Amino acid sequence: MASIIVPASSILCSDNFSTNKTSSRHGSTHQVRPSLQPSSVIGKEVSVRSSTSKFSNPLVRNCSRRSRGSSFRCSAVDSPVLPSALLFDCDGVLVDTEKDGHRVSFNDTFAEKELGVTWDVDLYGELLKIGGGKERMTAYFNQTAWPEKAPKGEQERKEFIASLHKRKTELFMVLIEKKLLPLRPGVAKLIDQAFAKDVKVAVCSTSNEKAVSAIVSFLLGPERAAKIQIFAGDVVPRKKPDPAIYNLAATTLGVEPSRCVVVEDSGIGLAAAKAAGMTCIVTKSGYTADEDFANADAVFDCIGDPPEERFDFEFCTTLLQKQYV
What we know:
This protein is an alpha/beta fold. The protein has helices at residues 98-112, 121-127, 133-143, 154-177, 187-196, 209-220, 222-225, 244-253, 267-275, 313-322; strands at residues 4-6, 11-13, 17-18, 21-22, 29-30, 32-34, 46-48, 60-65, 72-77, 85-88, 200-205, 228-232, 260-264, 279-283, 298-300. A seven-stranded mixed β-sheet has the order 3-15-14-13-10-11-12, sandwiched between helices. The chain has a two-stranded parallel ribbon with strand order 1-7. A hairpin with a 6-residue loop joins strand 4 and strand 5 (29-30). Helix 1 (98-112) crosses helix 4 (154-177), helix 3 packs across helix 4 (154-177) and helix 4 (154-177) runs parallel beside helix 6. The longest helix has 24 residues, at 154-177. The termini are close together. Pfam families: Hydrolase. One of its GO terms (molecular function) is metal ion binding. Keywords: Hydrolase, Metal-binding. Belongs to the HAD-like hydrolase superfamily. DOG/GPP family.
């Protein structure tokens, strides 16, 4: 895999973009983020030589000196490989919803039904390792104990869980409609940049389809929502980390998985995207900051808006181009 050579003066040391790669010259490890020039950094392959080093463009191949003079001859110049689709997870990516959104709505539902159950912040963080709200409640009750008010039969318990999840979704949607949970920085910008290039945009989430649709509609606005396809909830039988939802998105959108760029925030989401054969950028969220993202193509703390921008659509294009060099 080719390294991208970046002038040392263009690198800002930060915890926002992790590369954990070793400099070929100095033998040291750096954490870097692009200085608002995303095309200068591709994923994790970053080498620092000196402030006089030239930027090695992955789109230009077979460049050599034509003679003893100072001019160069380039035998081939590739066109950028645009992503065919930009796919977002919802919770933790579009909005940091988990701690003060979904968790609160679960607890309010449990209180309404007088179940005697409360999920604190730490416990909910552990439960997030299970994809899907209904699956999360079922696993919790199976491991601890089913509430006294819960039915005993398997089918009746499925219906009981479904009713709890329906009410939880209603409470969560009230929070979204009141705009009490804002979009994460840079989300709207990145989506608009994709639309400007006629790139398809979709949201792929384990959350309830109504909740995801509410986030997209109320927080991104009706014009964007009309162009965003949503794959959510029980649209697939197996939740993340299974790649089913990303496979379905690629098939429905009519795109090759290898031409899709996914933005995720969790380890199970990353696993799903990579198992589907897609490029994946991680934007860490409140509950996932300490997860292992070694398999990600790039890791940031957020997408970001100027002047705190971490990456943009040009970076997504360059990251995808790396797969074709």
